[in-house]
């Protein structure tokens, strides 16, 4: 964790054509630098490497199709820990070819499978139709007079698909059309037939028992087998047209039972064969997919890296001789040697004759902000950055947040038992982190909790500490050292008798009686307060004062940190004109309040407790400058208070007007001074035109980066603008001091809420289980405890934990950081393969 | 033999966590009740007559304390059994997961 962000420099990379691909691949693996776009006006279609990127897109499309097929077949894709490197351009064609071949094969196999399945469905329908029309015929033959005669009629094959059987010998031309129709259409079909054919047709139909899959779409639905018998050729045409209209599937109708049996047999055999072939096709498909799945992961990674490299190459520009590529990158100064090493490595891999080299160039742009973190500090850095990324080389609040954030959380959460459960949970996550990192779970909430595991661990450990201080463990106090209060001495001197005890429901222990109070509890709050009725009055006073003290210390710390910013950005005058008034205002008013609180704690004891003054009254009297009628806390109080008040009042106009007037004098008066001072001054002025702060005598030479100036030097110094800005800052700071100090009282409020919730949960849930006295009722304690545990976790740990987290975060972001932090910077995003998201992972395909 | 698995992996893990917590917390509560801790007075089921009509104070209250303490220990014992059952479920779930993949 570092004090401020790293120093960055703008670097030009000269990459020899031929080895530029390998150099950028090497840089991508290391993730050192951030590339700038040198061709912002060129559209993405006109860029140099657009065709290569198109090729990568095509490969990604094929890979997407492949992964979807693999996922449908439920084959697992083995991932590797370190992905393969980006392939050189000559290998790209090989991969492309492989992928295209795979795609073609898969398409063919899928198409064949479709055809076979359609065939199977047709045959199944035909079988059903034959079986069902058999029952029609046989049932009809029992009822109709024509029945037995029907069987003797010889058949005349027309050879058409509809297979109508004519009885031309008798001239009766009885024809049959049979097939299947969807269940929903059957009534309309029947009605249409009747209307069109005017009764010259007989339709019989039965529903098929099992639901069949539709031929084309594969949807499961009910079908109906029908058999139409009709007279005449014209009727046949009409019936055929109607059947077409209703999308019926017509099948040839056999003339007699023997033929029907034959057809059924052959159908059965064909269906069996088809099933076999289908199974074999599916097996083959699965084999192909499995083989592809083995290399799928490495292909995805390779294509991703390739596409990234070409994208970066598009950002570079070609130099005049067209022999090498120029790239502009932001690089941390400390990483320059690594950068040179990476380029050498890349040149070696690319077999370049001339190595690529770097050239550092000066820049007036503000570089991006880089703060290096490890797995422990990255959580805290991210919660600071959620408010805003720091300006370049600004003091970072993150190192202090590692301690203050868990501490403020713990002040609001303070419970020993809950803290222990939270720490154990976080410890489990920390110990399991290697396994969890590989799992890549999709659940976002779990991912959030997991990435904050170190924060939760710290919060839990600090909560254990504050739980010991508040002496609160699942709302019960622990008596580790022996209470400092004793009841027996109250009976010794006849203060209390048996009669007093019997006639009063509440009695007050008097610490002034000797022996009752033997001294404060060594660590934390005395456990006897857990049984006292006036527990809250004692704790409230204590917690409120503690919150104000913590708040004032936190805010003063924030103000002090602003000094480092002023000094670094060469605004030494700000230390005297901004920091000093701010600190004086804060300390004279609220620092004095803290002093009074501590003074009252130290000076007044149990003996004088009835005359102890109210701090609040004294504080208010300080402002209205009255209160000569109440006894002072200490001699000389009025004088000191008037002095502090005057200092605070004076620092407000100093804060408001000091900086604008000084800058105004510097710009106008200083310029006149420059003209009079002679040649050297003029030369320096002409070099640094318009930059005000560089004329300060205590200019540190930091090289090229030394001239990073916080406020862009205006050519025209706008007094009104600066004055307005400073006025807003003054009002914000002064009013903010009061409101922010009051805001810290939330530390008291939330810890009170947590303690009360915890007590209510114990009283309403756990006590029920413990007060059972019946023999069988013992078992009741088991589910009661389960309920208690569940409610503790869900209400007290999750809900209260999130609430305290949020409030601690707000205290940091608003009350602490607005004293010194600007947070308007840009984050350094290095070109790193591991940071690039994979499209497939987002879709859940990998 | 029908499968002994009756809850999924998450439920079994929850069962384990609550059982471990239950064993530790109920055992400690049992110890504190047996030690007649004053902080736990509200949880002991005493009535007014227990205090007034006690021939030998405060033995009635102490015996009630002991009773609650024993209740807690029994409950802790039951949670040991629940924990063992959850452990079995966790193992069975792991085995099933291993066999499917």
List the helices and strands and how they pair.
The complex is a heterodimer of chains A (846) and B (101).
Chain A: E1 8-16, H1 20-30, E2 34-35, H2 50-72, H3 89-143, H4 147-152, E3 174-182, H5 186-197, E4 201-207, E5 212-213, E6 220-221, E7 223-231, H6 233-245, E8 249-251, H7 257-315, E9 317-318, E10 324-332, H8 336-349, E11 357-361, H9 377-385, H10 398-413, H11 416-431, H12 433-439, H13 444-451, H14 453-470, H15 488-492, H16 498-503, H17 535-568, H18 572-603, H19 615-624, H20 637-677, H21 679-687, H22 719-743, H23 746-770, H24 781-816, H25 839-843
Antiparallel strand pairs in A: 1-10, 1-11, 2-10, 3-7, 3-8, 4-7, 5-6, 9-10
Chain B: H1 9-34, H2 48-52, H3 59-100
GO molecular function (chain B): RNA endonuclease activity
Protein name (chain B): Ribonuclease K
Transmembrane segments (chain B): 12-35, 68-90
Strand content of chain B: under 5%
- Total DSSP E strands of chain B: 0
Task: Report the end-to-end length of chain B measured between terminal Cα atoms.
Answer: 23 Å
Calculate the terminal CA-CA distance of chain A, rounded to whole Å: 35 Å
Please, what is the average pLDDT of chain B?
87
> Measured on Cα atoms, how large is the radius of gyration of chain A?
44 Å
Task: Report the count of strand segments of chain A.
Answer: 11
Number of helices of chain B: 3
Shape designation of chain B: rod-shaped
Helix content of chain A: 55-70%
Global geometry of chain A: flat
Q: Work out the helix count of chain A.
A: 25
Instruction: Specify the oligomeric state.
Output: heterodimer
How would a textbook summarize the main sheet of chain A? 5 strands, antiparallel
Largest beta-sheet details of chain B: none
């Amino acid at each position: 964790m570092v004090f401020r962000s790293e120093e960055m420099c703008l670097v030009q990379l000269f990459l020899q054509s031929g080895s530029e691909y390998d150099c950028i691949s090497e840089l991508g693996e290391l993730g050192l630098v951030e590339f700038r776009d040198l061709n912002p006006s060129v559209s993405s279609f006109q860029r140099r490497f657009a065709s290569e990127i198109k090729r990568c897109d095509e490969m990604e499309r094929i890979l997407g199709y492949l992964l979807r097929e693999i996922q449908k077949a439920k084959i697992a894709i083995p991932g590797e820990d370190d992905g393969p490197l980006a392939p050189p351009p000559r290998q790209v064609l090989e991969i492309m070819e492989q992928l295209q071949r795979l795609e073609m094969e898969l398409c063919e196999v899928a198409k064949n499978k479709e055809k076979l399945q359609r065939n199977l469905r047709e045959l199944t329908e035909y079988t059903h139709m034959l079986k069902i029309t058999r029952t029609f015929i046989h049932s009809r033959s029992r009822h109709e007079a024509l029945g037995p005669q029907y069987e003797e009629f010889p058949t005349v094959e027309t050879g058409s698909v509809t297979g109508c059987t004519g009885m031309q010998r008798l001239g009766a031309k009885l024809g049959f059309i049979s097939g299947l129709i969807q269940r929903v259409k059957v009534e309309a079909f029947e009605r249409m037939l009747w209307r069109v054919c005017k009764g010259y047709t007989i339709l019989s139909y039965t529903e098929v028992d099992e639901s069949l899959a539709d031929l084309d779409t594969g949807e499961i639905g009910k079908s109906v087998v029908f058999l139409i018998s009709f007279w005449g050729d014209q009727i046949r045409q009409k019936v055929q047209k109607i059947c077409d209209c209703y999308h019926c599937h017509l099948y040839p109708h056999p003339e007699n039972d023997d033929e029907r049996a034959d057809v059924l047999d052959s159908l059965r055999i064909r269906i069996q064969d088809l099933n076999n072939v289908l199974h074999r096709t599916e097996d083959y498909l699965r084999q192909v997919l499995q083989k592809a799945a083995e290399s799928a992961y490495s292909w995805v990674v390779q294509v991703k890296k390739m596409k990234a490299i070409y994208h970066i190459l598009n950002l570079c520009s070609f130099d005049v001789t067209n022999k090498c590529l120029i790239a502009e990158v932001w690089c941390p100064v400390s990483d320059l040697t690594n950068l040179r090493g990476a380029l050498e490595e890349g040149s070696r891999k690319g077999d370049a004759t001339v190595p690529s080299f770097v050239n550092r160039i000066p820049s007036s742009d503000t570089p991006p902000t880089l703060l290096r973190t490890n797995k422990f500090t990255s959580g805290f850095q991210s919660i600071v950055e959620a408010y805003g990324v720091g300006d370049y080389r600004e003091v970072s609040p993150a190192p202090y947040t590692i301690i203050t954030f868990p501490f403020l959380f713990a002040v609001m959460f303070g419970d020993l038992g809950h803290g222990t459960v939270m720490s154990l949970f976080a410890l489990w996550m920390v110990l399991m982190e290697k396994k969890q990192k590989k799992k890549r779970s999709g659940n976002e909430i779990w991912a959030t909790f997991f990435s904050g595991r170190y924060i939760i661990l710290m919060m839990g450990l600090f909560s254990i500490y504050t739980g010991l201080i508040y002496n609160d463990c699942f709302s019960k106090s622990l008596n580790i050292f022996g209470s400092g209060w004793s009841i027996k001495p109250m009976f010794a001197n006849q203060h209390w008798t048996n009669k007093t005890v019997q006639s009063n429901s509440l009695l007050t222990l008097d610490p002034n009686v000797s022996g009752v109070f033997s001294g404060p509890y060594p660590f934390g709050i005395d456990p006897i307060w857990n049984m006292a009725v006036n527990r809250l009055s004692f704790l409230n006073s204590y917690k409120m004062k503690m919150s104000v003290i913590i708040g004032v210390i936190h805010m003063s710390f924030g103000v002090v940190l602003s000094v480092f910013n002023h000094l670094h950005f060469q605004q030494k005058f700000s230390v005297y004109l901004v920091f000093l008034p701010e600190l004086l205002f804060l300390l004279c008013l609220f620092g004095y309040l803290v002093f009074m609180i501590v003074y009252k704690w130290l000076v007044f004891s149990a003996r004088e407790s009835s005359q102890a003054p109210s701090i609040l009254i004294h504080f208010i009297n300080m402002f209205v400058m009255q209160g000569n009628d109440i006894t002072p806390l200490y001699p000389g109080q009025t004088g000191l208070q008037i002095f502090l008040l005057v200092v605070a009042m004076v620092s407000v106009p100093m804060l408001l007007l000091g900086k604008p007037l000084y800058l105004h004098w510097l710009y106008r008066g200083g310029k006149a001074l420059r003209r009079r001072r002679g040649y050297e001054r003029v030369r320096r002025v002409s070099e640094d035109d318009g930059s005000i702060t560089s004329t300060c005598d205590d200019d540190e030479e930091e090289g090229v980066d030394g001239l990073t100036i916080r406020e862009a030097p205006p050519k025209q110094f706008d007094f009104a603008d600066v004055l307005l800005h400073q006025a807003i800052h003054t009002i914000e700071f002064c009013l903010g001091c009061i409101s922010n100090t009051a805001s810290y009282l939330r530390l008291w409020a939330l810890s009170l809420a947590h303690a009360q919730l915890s007590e209510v949960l114990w009283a309403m849930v756990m006590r029920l289980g413990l007060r059972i006295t019946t023999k069988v009722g013992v078992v009741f304690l088991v589910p009661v405890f389960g309920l208690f545990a569940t409610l503790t976790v869900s209400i007290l740990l999750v809900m209260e934990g999130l609430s305290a987290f949020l409030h601690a975060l707000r205290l940091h972001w608003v009350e602490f950081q607005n004293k010194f932090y600007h947070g308007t910077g840009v984050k350094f995003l290095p070109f790193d393969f591991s940071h690039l998201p994979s499209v497939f992972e987002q879709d859940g395909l990998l | 033999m029908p499968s002994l698995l009756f809850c999924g992996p998450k439920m079994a893990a929850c069962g384990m966590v609550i059982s471990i917590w239950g064993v530790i917390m109920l055992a400690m509560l049992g110890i504190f009740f047996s030690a007649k801790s004053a902080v736990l007075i509200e949880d002991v089921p005493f009535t007014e007559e227990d205090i007034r009509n006690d021939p030998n104070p405060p033995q009635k209250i102490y015996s009630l304390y002991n009773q609650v303490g024993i209740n807690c220990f029994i409950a802790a014992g039951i949670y040991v059994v629940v924990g063992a059952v959850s452990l079995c479920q966790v193992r069975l779930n792991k085995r099933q997961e291993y066999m499917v993949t």
